[in-house]
Input
Amino acid sequence: MSSTTKDAAILFEGVGKSFPKGDGTRVTALSGIDLAVPQGSITGIIGRSGAGKSTLLRMVNGLERPTEGRVTVAGRDVGAARGSALRHIRRDVGMIFQHFNLLASRTVRDNVALPLEVAGTPRSRIRPRVDELIEQVGLQALADRYPAELSGGQKQRVGIARALATDPKVLLSDEATSALDPETTQTVLELLARINRDLGLTILLITHEMAVLRDIASHMAVIEGGSIVEAGETHKVFTRPAHATTRSFLSGVTGATLPAFIADRLLSERPEGPSEQVIRVTFAGDHATDPMLSLLATELGISANILAGAIEEVGSHPFGNLLISVDAMRADEARAYLERHGLLTEVLGHVR
Amino acid sequence: MSANLIPILWDATLQTLYMVALSAILGTVGGLPLGVYLATSQRGELLSSPWVNWVLGLVVNATRSVPFIILVVAIIPFTRMMVGTSIGTDAAIVPLTIAAIPFIARLVENAIREVDAGLIEAARAMGATPFQIIRKVLIPEALPAITLGLTLAVVSLIGYSAMVGAVGGQGLGDLGIRYGYQRFMPEVMLAVVVILIVLVQLVQSLGERLAARVDRRAARNRGN
Output
């Protein structure tokens, strides 16, 4: 990560986790994790199911203990804490869940009050604090309803209000939007981004959806087979993905995908005779808005067909992604020109 | 049926209700914490202590294996120690309670184990102590199932209470045997059976209503 480890809200140092197996050997879930989650950031960890991201997240509030290395939250070693010391750390770390985990027997108000009751807050102080939290997530009208009467998005808002009740420094999000439809996902992500901004709360989230990182994460890490294969500021990872896993996650979200009629005809090798090369061009940072394709045409006389494309914002940086095809004879020349001007290119294949 | 049998039936009904109510209350006082402990002391659970759990499970199973009528006579010395006599309605409450505790404990254990593990995880993440998790999460969330379990236990106790006539426990079952069978008065037997059916019906529907009242898991009209 670009930030120093000193101002990290959460720090993983050489963290590993293995479980004993029935036959006496051990299964390694995580190994050699070094990661600093910067104070005030929204850091996203992406990985496929079974990659170990859930175990990693649960080490931050001691639901799992590392078998190697150290996890510290605001300088406190979580793995070494026991009993009441661990419970105090947990009150400084809120957590929201994929399946919300609300108590069916309690109203919205009483669900939000639970962490305060657990922390021993006096009853007279619980009520106003709960009202404030419910207002913060916009659920005033539903305060006396039971979870069964709420939609998924509303339930997650209750989960967020509950997680914020004890004024934590860090919020952990365990696939918080994975059970929600795209529209609701968007509103929940906006709420998380607002909380991060307004309260200066550090958010560490895990997801298997790159779109979540694109939309709210300032920093990200990619986890694969129990190790972090790539980490950094989100816009940098999006522009220059170094690892194959990162690229495969990215292909789903950046700059649209190839239209089916082209994807079907795509050849990995350049065929005999006249053909076109299909190239992914990534515009990042300051170059995202430059008219590079028209410059390509006027300066080199190479015309490019635009197949798909999009310009969006990643980690508050403009980020463009264009799929083009150019005459295969002059493709190398065109790519060299674009690279020289700060764009990134990737050959996807050829079409006749 | 002659009119002088009515007071006898009435008395027997009250005796049955007394035995069942008291043994159900005592059985819950013993069975609820035992059930919670059985559920939470399993390996990897909140109060994980597999050995204690194994021993308790063994005791519970052993008690539940003994046919009730044998339990009644087998513990006569214990009964005499507890209530000073081994005969009568009060004496009957001892074996009824001893049978009820492990039964209720298993019902409570099952209800607690049905609580979504995610809720326990959420409570642990809040910094809750195991005791807070039991009191604020496990028991309230399992309450609908516990209520139904207790209903089942009370219905079973009504049946058991008919057997305590063997130690002079009196009540409806005893009346049915002594008058209906030994004195060849089939109308008494019939009356006893009808009263038992009515009792069981009442207990069952009351239990179901209570369970529905505390059950907030399904969306439904507000205000109830």
